[in-house]
Amino acid sequence: MNDLARFPLEGGGSVIVEIDPVPGTARVSRRDDLIEDTKGSFEAALANVKDAAAAALDAFRSMTRGPDEVELKFGVKLTAQAGAVIAKTGLEGNFEVKLKWVRETGS
Fold first, then answer.
1. Sheet holding 95-102, edge to edge
2. E-state strands within 1-107
3. Is the pTM of this model over 0.70?
4. Distance CA 76, CA 92 (A)
5. Contact 38/6 with Cβ under 8 angstroms?
6. Fewer Cβ in 10 A, N or C end of the chain?
7. Which strands make up the sheet holding 14-19, listed edge to edge?
8. Exposure on the CB side of residue 16, measured as CA atoms within 13 A
9. Would you give per-residue pLDDT tens digits along the chain (107 residues)?
10. What share of the chain is helix, strand, coil (3-state, %, to 5)?
11. Where are the domains of the chain?
């Protein structure tokens, strides 16, 4: 059975995410304790993934002959302990992120 984690939103409210249970642990709790509260916000959890996407974009933009378009597509997996991580496969991710940049042409 998968677990649930509550990530607070910086603007108020929260988002509940289904996460994989930590191996070797078992949940024995009351029904109202089934959702684990995370330490950081949803936005903070995504910060590392956002930084990784920005670094990848910088790498492609710095090519001698850069592409006209750059598109990154990856799965993001959320964990209560580590926040957001890039999933080893897109199918494993809680959600898929697709980012696209188009080179602006000069006037």
1. 83-86, 69-79, 95-102
2. 3-8, 14-19, 35-37, 69-79, 83-86, 95-102
3. no
4. 8
5. yes
6. C
7. 14-19, 3-8, 35-37
8. 6
9. 568 889 999 999 999 888 877 666 555 554 456 788 888 899 998 898 889 888 988 888 888 887 788 888 888 888 888 888 888 765 665 677 777 878 777 65
10. 25, 35, 40
11. 3-102
Residue with tokens 């959702």: 35
On the 0-12 / 13-18 / 19+ scale of CB atoms within 10 A, 39 is exposed
- What does DSSP say about strands 3-8 and 35-37: parallel, antiparallel, or unpaired? parallel
- Dihedral over Cα of 98, 52, 13, 30: its sign: positive
Residue 94 tokens read as 């809680």
Reading the block at residue 30, the tokens are: 């009351």
> Residue 19: which of 31, 1, 32 has the closest Cα?
1
| Cα–Cα distance, 28 to 52 (Å, whole number) | 36
